[in-house]
Specification:
heterotrimer; A alpha+beta (294); B mainly alpha (839); C mainly alpha (125); A: 294 residues; alpha+beta; Immunoglobulin-like; 3-stranded mixed β-sheet; 12 strands; B: 839 residues; mainly alpha; Four Helix Bundle (Hemerythrin (Met), subunit A); two-stranded antiparallel ribbon; two-stranded antiparallel sheet; 4 strands; 2% strand
Chain lengths: 294, 839, 125
């Protein structure tokens, strides 16, 4: 893929320079015009023979490359996958699956992947078309309502990456991204294991009590608590995430407070209602509690 | 024919001829000016309107650029941004790029082909008014915060979500459907005009290349626009009546829209590009001072591109998860289309090499456009390769690519054309100095604006984002792009100033100011007759090779130098060798076209707001206007059979069947209509492929009623054939009787066609299968209803003595309609009645 | 069918590209239906691939035939372009030459479209 790009850029630059060079030469005043026969020969060689051959080679190379870039995987045909990602306006529901393909645990807006191994994704859309894309790891795949698409990616370097939604999906399409944490296999397995274990109830605080009293649990789930809402993003260990509001805000207490108070001012068209009517103290307590979930 | 054989008229005779011609072709004054149907007026209005829409869309583009200049900007709201980029794309494609070429073609073609008029001037006028009304409707929506906001591609389910898209999506669908009607009207006009109305002697190997290109482009419109119209129908049915064509929960599929949209959308790119290259094919030989080198190669390129462009549509869908095999087929065709595109560039270079080039402003824009376009072409080759496109798709890399293609391949050549052809408007040249300043501002500004987008795209910036975070490597590229966009806009502004600045004091230039070899500069701004007399052509570049041609034309020494009957007349010639076969009388100034367009506009606008009664009222007015137009303006029995067209040639004034232009217009229209229908049938089978059981367990229309309808339609068709024969045999009473019988059978067929889905209580809102069956049935029945109107029209013409055994054009054309009607009916009822049994 | 006769030589211009279009359509539809209905069809991927290889050969054959007819119409290249004289003969030669060029382009385009048949071995997306 990388090679293909280099070949195309360098080849393209040379072809452009040659063509425009000839054009510039043709536009100048010359002592004697070229013969029609000579000019016709230019059409045949420059306009026909050369492109036919170059394009044929390029096409063959690229078509040969397709199954290399997106290799045939057993999971791709029968729909088994390791992670199911669903695009929703304007966030990502992420469901980790176990060996049997059953849901293991859910999270949102942040993927954890192992390095050096191919991970298969099942991609869905809940409302409109979105597109799943981690530029640093590979090409994109659309998420289309009614169709389950499969994609596999193989990260080669640990690190933190950003993935934007690549298909226009409504007012806040620009504010729909997710973070990707690529970790060593051992770390990844440990992270998975921690998530899969029977969750430990978080420490009880006034923030937690307010979270339930103000109805947050109707839409959000938090493992280890009675919160099992499925409408909005899962907030288990939200304090640990890189960003808030699907890649829109850095994960700080202040961002959390701003978002709870008036989500639409940050993310127009968001489905979450504003909670500006709550006392400031309540919002701060809820944010503090959520920020502490790790 | 040598000059000595040509007649010579005395000054008095010539003055008389000119006076009569002038009277016949005059443009009315006062408000009635707007009822003119002359190709020069229509072309000018069309072009000016398209240009104004372009400037408006350009302003929207600048708004978008300002918003993106810096990260986290709040210059405009997310929603306004989404409306702005949607309208920017929509207007540029539908209200500028396609119409501007229709404008140029309507303006230039008659004189270029050495003829007086295109065959259907009133149709051109109707097309223009439809375009103008629809365009204002679509553009105006943004001032009411009601513009479409789902992207110019209108992907469902976002665009079918009424809460999100509001009325904007309806405005897009209905407003543009209306404009598509205008485009198809233009396609009919251009195809018939180019094939049948060339000057005598202008064989197909001598046609100006502009005409070759436009012939191909008009043909492409005929196959590219109808699938979008079919898609629009499905889309509106979902939005208005909740028929679930694109709703996955009820068996629909958003991908069907993507297929239909891009089957239109990709040929569209070439529909825009080829006419611009056609202008270059006229400009380059003129300024190289020699005939084009590789005429046949250009024909190859135009025809080849026309075909290949229909095998590219899925390259807009490389990331949708279709099988790799499907993607690769489209990737291959996308690479192949680069070959004819390259050929054209080399033909221009070869012509320049073999000539002596005068580097004028039009050439500057042409060559600059080519330099830009080649970059767009090369990035096009890159994104047509699937592995690269998975990365680049829907990023700013594509934004850069498409602007390089469209601005280099279309806008620059169009500006070249404005500088080249401006003298036709009022005999004055545009300024060289302004032109050069404009060029450099546009050229530099364009590259500064769009080249950095390649990098922001490669760095992962998706398209259609109203903002982006700071610090992820996109900031500077966007800032530079915005600066470039303003420089570019200034360049366009200079062109506008040059065009509108008063030129009263400027001396008049020569009539053929660039010494072009083709005939378009023969048309004088003051004379509305197009050509003074219709010449005999013996060269590809008659103005160079036929020395006395222009003088003789002006002296009225060729065909049709006079208009003794006070009719607007032009010649019809054969397709290949352009031998004169008929003297055609074309429609003159009339308000009926405007009324028809306004009423049809009313239908579409009222539908947008669900004003059902107004819709019906407007539909009735439209029908009335069209019938009046036909009744008073077509198939008129002439005063004489053999009409003297000059040079001792006598030609019929009335022709029917394939000899007549009306027959061709019907044929071409029905090909477009058939394409839309084929798209609906494609939809039917598309649902079959994506579902295990595509009926979803819902009842079908049964076999009996569809078969009954099929038989009734076939019988009605047979009776129409009989009516045609009886009429030819001068058995008028029998003809009328058979027409009545056929009409009754058609009505019965329509009833039977709807009876199947109705009696089996198919509810189209429950699942996609009943919905698609209903749509196919309704499409067919609506065509049946149109057939009934036509049958009654023929009956009325016969009863009023306007249709006779000899003058039977109405009936022959209606029978042609019936050929398509019977194919539609048989296919529809066989598919909906029998296919569910087979599967 | 007088009108058909009049333009019959006009239509021959489009023969080769039409063959390309048919070949393209057959390839695309065959795999679209096969991949969507794999379960219901008793066909293997390679059978379809091979069949389409056969279609490709036929398509190329028809294009070569149309090229030969065009070559004949062009007078077997006895006369060079531009073919711009106002005679029936030059008009026919122009048609022959243009048709020949289109046959060449269509031949190449059919070859391009058959490349995926060589390299892609599964219905996977």
């Amino acid at each position: 893929m990388h090679h293909l790009f280099i070949v195309m850029v360098i080849g393209g630059a040379i072809i452009w320079a040659l063509t425009i060079g000839v054009l510039a030469y043709a536009g100048r005043t010359r002592p004697k015009p070229m013969s029609v026969r000579g000019a016709s020969r230019l059409i045949v060689w420059g306009g026909v023979a050369f492109p036919v051959i170059v394009l044929f080679l390029l096409l063959s190379y690229a078509v040969w490359l397709m199954p290399q870039v997106r290799p045939w995987l057993p999971g791709a045909m029968d729909g088994t996958a390791e992670i199911e990602v669903t695009g929703e306006q304007f966030w990502w529901r992420i469901l980790y699956l176990d060996q049997a393909g059953k849901p293991a645990f859910e999270t949102a807006n942040e993927l954890h992947l192992p390095v050096g191994r191919r991970t298969t994704f099942r991609l869905k859309a809940a409302d409109v078309i979105h597109s799943f894309w981690i530029p640093a790891l590979g090409g994109k795949m659309d998420m289309i309502p009614g169709r389950d698409n499969t994609l596999s990616l193989e990260p080669t370097k640990a690190g933190i990456y950003r993935g934007p939604c690549a298909e226009f999906c409504g007012t806040s399409h620009a504010l729909m991204a997710f973070s990707v944490v690529v970790m060593e296999e051992a770390d990844y397995l440990a992270w998975r294991a921690a998530r899969t274990q029977a969750p430990v109830a978080p420490q009880k605080t006034s923030g937690q009590e307010l979270f339930f009293r103000h109805g947050c649990a109707a839409c959000h789930a938090i493992a280890g608590t009675p919160a099992i809402g499925r409408i909005g993003p899962d907030l288990t260990a939200v304090g640990e995430r890189q960003t808030l509001a699907a890649g829109t805000l850095s994960n700080t207490p202040d961002s959390m407070i701003r978002f709870i108070r008036d989500p639409a001012s940050i993310k127009p068209g968001v489905k979450m209602p504003a909670f500006g009517m709550l006392p400031d103290g309540d919002i701060e307590a809820i944010s503090a509690w959520l920020g502490g979930l790790k | 024919m040598s000059a000595t054989d040509l007649p010579t008229f005395t000054d008095e005779e010539r003055a008389g001829q000119e006076e009569r011609l002038r009277k016949v072709w005059t443009t009315p004054s006062g408000w009635r000016y707007w009822t003119s149907v002359n190709n020069t007026e229509i072309g000018l209005w069309y072009g000016a309107a398209a240009f104004i829409f372009m400037l408006f869309a350009g302003l929207l583009g600048l708004m978008v650029r300002v918003q993106l200049a810096v990260p986290d900007n709040s210059f405009i709201s997310a929603d306004l941004f989404n409306q702005a980029f949607t309208l920017h794309g929509t207007i540029m494609m539908f209200l500028f790029a396609v119409p501007i070429f229709e404008a140029i073609a309507v303006y230039l073609l008659p004189s270029m082909l050495g003829t007086r008029e295109l065959p259907f001037p009133r149709l051109s006028a109707f097309g223009f008014w439809s375009f103008a009304i629809g365009g204002v409707f679509v553009c105006g929506s943004i001032f009411f915060n009601a513009a479409p906001n789902t992207g110019w591609f209108m992907y469902p389910p976002l665009a079918t979500d009424k809460e999100y898209s509001g009325i904007g999506a309806d405005i897009w669908l209905l407003g543009l459907s209306f404009i598509e009607v205008a485009s198809i009207a233009a396609a009919v006009e251009l195809i018939v005009g180019i094939m049948k109305c060339r000057a005598p002697g202008m064989r197909i190997n001598m046609m100006p290349l502009f005409a070759w290109y436009l012939l191909i482009v008009a043909g492409m419109i005929l196959f590219a626009f109808p699938p979008l119209i079919a898609g629009d129908i499905l889309f509106e049915m979902e939005r208005m009546f909740d028929w679930p064509f694109f709703d996955a929960a009820r068996g629909g599929d958003p991908l069907l829209w993507q297929h239909l949209f891009w089957i239109f959308g990709h040929p569209e790119v070439y529909i825009i590009f080829l006419p611009a290259i056609a202008i270059m094919a006229m400009v380059v030989p003129t300024f190289s001072q020699r005939p084009i080198v590789g005429y046949s190669w250009i024909v190859l390129a135009a025809v080849g591109t026309g075909f290949l462009s229909f095998g590219l549509w899925v390259h807009h869908m490389f990331a949708t998860g279709l099988p790799q095999m499907s993607l690769a087929f489209f990737s291959a065709a996308s690479e192949a289309v680069a070959i004819p595109t390259g050929v054209q560039i080399f033909v221009f270079i070869a012509t320049m090499l073999a000539g002596r080039v005068i580097f004028s402003v039009p050439m500057l824009f042409g060559a600059g456009g080519l330099a830009i376009f080649v970059i767009g072409g090369l990035t096009g080759v890159m994104v047509a390769l699937v592995p690269f496109d998975w990365q680049a798709h829907d990023t700013y890399f594509i934004v850069a690519h498409l602007h390089y293609v469209l601005i280099g391949g279309m806008l620059f050549p169009v500006v070249a054309g404005i500088y080249y052809y401006y003298p036709l408007l009022d005999g004055k040249k545009l300024s060289d100095r302004f032109g050069k300043v404009a060029f450099w501002l546009m050229f530099v500004g364009f590259n500064v604006a769009f080249f950095p987008m390649h990098f922001s795209g490669l760095r992962g910036m998706p398209r259609r984002v109203f903002t982006y975070p700071a610090g992820i490597g996109w900031d500077w590229f966007n800032m530079i792009s915005t600066i470039g966009a303003f420089v570019f806009a200034f360049g366009v502004g200079v062109v506008v100033i040059d065009v509108v600045r008063p030129k009263r004091k400027q001396p008049r230039c020569e009539q053929n100011p660039w010494n072009a070899g083709t005939l378009e500069f023969i048309s004088e701004p003051e004379e509305k007759w197009g050509v003074r007399s219709v010449p005999i052509i013996t060269s590809r570049y008659p103005a160079w090779d036929q020395p006395d041609l222009i003088a003789n034309m002006k002296a009225g020494r060729y065909y049709l130098p006079d208009s003794p009957m006070g009719e607007r007349e032009t010649l019809v010639t054969t397709v290949l060798d352009a031998r004169p076969v008929q003297c055609l009388r074309v429609g003159g100034t009339s308000i009926v076209t405007m009324v028809a367009a306004a009423a049809l506009g009313g239908v579409f606008i009222a539908l947008t707001f669900h004003w059902w009664w107004i819709t019906i009222a407007c539909a009735i007015v439209t029908l009335g206007a069209i019938l009046t137009w036909l009744w008073t303006g077509t198939a008129i029995i002439p005063e004489t059979q053999d009409y003297d067209v000059g040079l001792g040639l006598k030609l019929p004034v009335y022709a029917s069947g394939p000899d007549s232009v009306g027959w061709w217009a019907m044929f071409i229209t029905m090909v477009g209509d058939g394409t839309a229908y084929a798209s609906l049938i494609f939809g039917y089978f598309f649902y079959w492929t994506i579902h295990e059981d595509f009926t979803g367990g819902h009842a079908g229309p049964g076999a009996f009623w569809p078969m009954a309808a099929l038989v009734l339609f076939v019988l009605a068709w047979l009776l129409m054939l009989a009516a045609r024969s009886l009429n030819k045999a001068n058995r008028i009473r029998a003809t009328q009787g058979v027409l009545v019988l056929s009409t009754v059978l058609t009505v019965a067929g329509c009833g039977a066609g709807l009876a199947g889905p109705y009696l089996y209580s198919m509810d189209p809102t429950l699942f996609v299968y009943p919905a698609i069956v209903w749509v196919v049935a309704i499409w067919t029945v609506v065509h049946g209803a149109v057939a009934v109107i036509m049958q009654l029209y023929c009956l009325a013409r016969s009863l009023s003595g306007r249709m006779t055994a000899r003058y039977d054009m109405d009936l022959v054309n209606v029978v042609l309609y019936w050929h398509f009607m019977v194919i539609t009916a048989v296919t529809s009822f066989a598919v909906i009645g029998l296919f569910p049994l087979l599967r | 069918m007088k009108w058909l006769r009049e333009i019959e030589t006009f239509w021959t211009l489009f023969t080769a590209p039409t063959v390309w279009a048919l070949h393209f359509l057959i390839c695309y539809v065959a795999f679209a239906v096969f991949c969507a209905k794999q379960g219901a069809l008793a066909l293997s991927f390679d059978t379809v691939r091979l069949a389409l290889g056969g279609v490709t050969v036929v398509a190329l054959g028809v294009i070569v035939l149309s090229a030969w007819l065009a070559w004949r119409q062009w007078g077997f290249g006895t006369d060079d372009p531009p073919h711009d004289a106002p005679t029936d003969e030059d008009r026919r030669k122009f048609q022959g030459f243009a048709t020949l060029l289109l046959a060449g382009l269509s031949f190449v385009a059919v070859l391009y479209v058959s490349v995926p048949l060589l390299f892609i071995g599964a219905c996977q997306s």
